[in-house]
Amino acid sequence: MLTVREMKPADKPPCLRDYILQSPPQLIFLDIDLKLIQEINELPDSLRNKILWVGITNEYEVGFKALQQGFFDVLLPFEPEKLVFLMERLMQKLLSKERPITISCPKERRYLNTLAILYIKADNNYVNIQLGDGECFPVFNTLSHFQEVLLFPFFRVHKSYIVNAHHISRIHFTKKFIKLKGCDHFIPYSSTYTDQLEEIDILKRYTKI
Questions:
Q1: pLDDT of 1
Q2: pLDDT band at residue 188, thresholds of 50, 70 and 90?
Q3: Pairing mode, if any, of strands 161-164 and 168-172?
């Protein structure tokens, strides 16, 4: 699921870095001024560059400065129509990232591109990670752990499954299963995760994912 956080200057805590570290988002919308832009620019590159920053302002000087400092975009002035277009661009940006993930197995450490993962299935004290090339391997960990680590475009659709929405080719709403491209296995989903299914449906219908 895409992690988004909105921040406003009036509500901004004293230390921006600590605020972000509480739960690192992938995307931040915020009302900006020159002082806040400078504070963001002073964040470590390892933290700042992991986030897509989107500013909201009515001041052209502030918007121009934000773009110079690496903001993904600036809404100036704020327009709902532009927001719809922006969200599509943001999702495409997030989906195009080949984000690496390190997975520690009993006898080895794996370095994977998240796009290579089709789904993750819980199996007692382990989870099985299914890759697009057909390989499947167990990891001693919980599904909740990977739900927090992987984020968008991974969705929890069942108590035992997390799927990569990038690979979804079909959702059967009567029989309650999901079909993934290049995979013969049918992934069940439960009504508990209806909201996630709706997000996936919107994502598939209105973007190029």
A1: 46
A2: very high
A3: unpaired
